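Practice record 12: protein with SN-glycerol-3-phosphate.
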Amino acid sequence: MKIFLDTANLDELKKAVAWGIVDGVTTNPSLIAKEGIAIEEQVARICDIIDGDISAEVVSTEAKEMIIEGHKLAKIHKNIVVKLPLTRDGIEACSEFAKEGVRTNVTLCFSPAQALLAAKAGAYIVSPFVGRLDDIAQLGMELIESICTIYGNYGYTTQVLAASLRSPLHVAQAAEIGADIGTMPFKTLDMMFNHPLTDKGLEIFLKDYAKAFADKK
Ligand code: G3P
């Protein structure tokens, strides 16, 4: 499974890139707003840090405007994937981009039927939100499972990006189901390293080693 970072924060990106395990980045209007820098500028900086798919989302709500805005975003860098909301206009824009060969990420997907529409429209990526479904007491991971089954049934090539992953458990479950990509905030990625037995084991190894060789220095 590819690991994407769901952030527009450059410090977080640099830290994670140093680990060598980040394949791409997803942003959304809220994440861009948090950084307080215009999307064109911030996304260009992200492209300088990571060589992978970088999703940049439109804020227009009508298909025609989405297409104009998406073209502008796609021009920023060859790695930009135009992110569109899963609305009627978003799907119309997605179909047009698919004809032109512009790669899209259809976001805010909360049902298998919506994911089917994204695949039919030729989306490069679909983004079902796991955590936000969990938040309303629905099993977000079941959505990932359904979409993977539907896409498998018909051989749709749209990549399933499990989004809104809030814990290492979410990430592991998405990988077990076979999601193509998992996107997560830095906090979730950082938590994936943690295991008390790793810490305890390392402490014992280092103590044993130091004890055995202490007098021989
Ligand atoms: O960027 C899309 C998605 O991953 C947002 O996650 O945590 O805001 O629900 P979250």
